[in-house]
Design brief:
three-stranded antiparallel sheet, glycosyltransferase, 10 helices, nine-stranded mixed sheet, Glyco_trans_25, transmembrane, Collagen_mod_GT25, globular
Length: 400
């Protein structure tokens, strides 16, 4: 056997081994799409930039944390199943049931939150502190009754495109922005829409440079668009048109927000803007700089109200706090799931009454992960859509 022949065999053996290693790395890379996303939801275009990272198991954030009271094993069972069936990797953080009032920041005793409110505040502060202690650059925070569409990766990809339009400077610059009302609007300026399909800025990490945003308020119980009279918040809106995951207007429940979204924009439109008048904290992205600001303002500086109202004051720059860059989205991407059962079990913070909920639902989420548990477990693809196009709103869903 010639030396030349042996060299060829050695070259082929090494080449095959290298190819196998590359394929194995791609298969288990956190930025590669999972089999669930390829088969159950459909193909996606990974592109050549960091938007591909939104399809990893933490939606482009470094971590996903879920707040769960150890006693609520029902919530933990459902959350673990929801995460597994949509290929998300989550870490649990224990909820808090007891807070020593001696540990409250200035103003805490005057606010007089009940035990549920204090526990909620402390749990969110514990997560902010964890990001700081572990130097976690970004995280998605969910409460344990949160629900989402099975197409959440695609939704977050569009949100990432939208967030860049609002927080990133124009390509090749460091201080020029797409939004003419940045950093604050003049009295005669009006909101301007930017289309994620046509408008572009610079393209860093998936959601924008980590020091350019503090909070992405992705799950809430209502919000509204900012106006020029709302002090120093930019007015620009990044618009996601023809989004099939958005219900038609008759199905969209604004809760504590207003109806400008459904009155102004065509059906199947989702809009990203600066957060204004948001309520509830069931889902939000936070950066490391945002966590530092949040922990200082809400746990060291002063307590001025319930957790979501203090988040609001940080985003508004009210109550003596400097304004932070907070974005939100309408309709929201994460929402409370309401299962069949007594409403008294819905929350450990708020009182929902003693009535019995006859039909499970999640507001504004078309292909709810939790409503589709059986379909996903059985490997079926005829998913349940609670808000079908062309149908009237169901008066029996208990939207209260």
């Amino acid at each position: 056997m010639s030396v030349h022949y042996l060299n060829i065999r050695l070259f082929l053996t090494i080449s095959v081994a290298l190819l196998g290693a590359i394929l194995l790395f791609w298969r288990f890379s956190p930025t590669s799409p999972s089999p669930f996303h390829r088969s159950a939801i459909g193909p996606f275009s990974s592109g050549g930039d960091s938007l591909q990272h939104v399809f990893n198991q933490t939606l482009g954030f470094q971590k996903i944390f879920v707040i769960n009271l150890p006693s609520r094993t029902d919530h933990r069972d459902s959350m673990s199943l929801a995460a597994a069936l949509t290929d998300l990797r989550i870490d649990y953080v224990d909820g808090v049931t007891g807070v020593d009032k001696i540990s409250l920041p200035p103003g805490g005793k005057e606010v007089k939150l009940d035990s549920g409110g204090l526990g909620n505040w402390r749990a969110h502060m514990n997560i902010a502190r964890m990001l700081i202690e572990q130097n976690i650059t970004s995280a998605l925070i969910l409460e344990d009754d949160a629900d989402w569409d099975i197409r959440i990766n695609h939704q977050m990809r569009d949100f990432a495109k939208a967030s860049r339009l609002l927080v990133q400077p124009l390509s090749g610059t460091s201080d020029r922005f797409l939004d003419p009302t940045h950093p604050q609007p003049k009295e005669d300026q009006r909101p301007q829409d930017f289309d994620i399909r046509k408008d572009f800025t610079s393209e860093p990490s998936p959601y924008g440079d980590i020091d350019r945003w503090g909070l992405f308020w992705l799950g809430h119980c209502g919000t509204r668009f900012p106006r020029a009279s709302d002090r120093n918040v930019p007015l620009g809106r990044a618009v996601i048109y023809d989004d099939e995951t958005v219900p038609e207007p008759q199905h969209v429940m604004m809760q504590f927000g207003d109806s400008e979204l459904i009155q102004t924009y065509p059906a199947h439109t989702r809009v990203v803007s600066r957060a204004w008048m948001n309520t509830c904290t069931m889902g939000y992205g936070i950066s490391l700089p945002g966590a530092r600001r949040l922990l200082y303002e809400l746990s060291v500086n002063k307590m001025t109200g319930p957790t979501d109202m203090m988040f609001r004051s940080v985003c508004h720059g009210s109550e003596g706090r400097p304004v932070q860059t907070c974005l939100t989205v309408q309709p929201q991407l994460f929402q409370h799931h309401r299962p069949v059962g007594y409403k008294s079990s819905f929350s450990d913070i708020s009182d929902h009454g003693a009535d019995y909920n006859e039909q499970a639902f999640t507001r504004n989420v078309r292909r709810s992960t939790r409503l589709n548990f059986r379909k996903l477990v059985d490997g079926l693809t005829d998913y349940i859509d609670l808000f079908k196009d062309g149908e009237g709103a169901d008066p029996n869903l208990g939207f209260k």
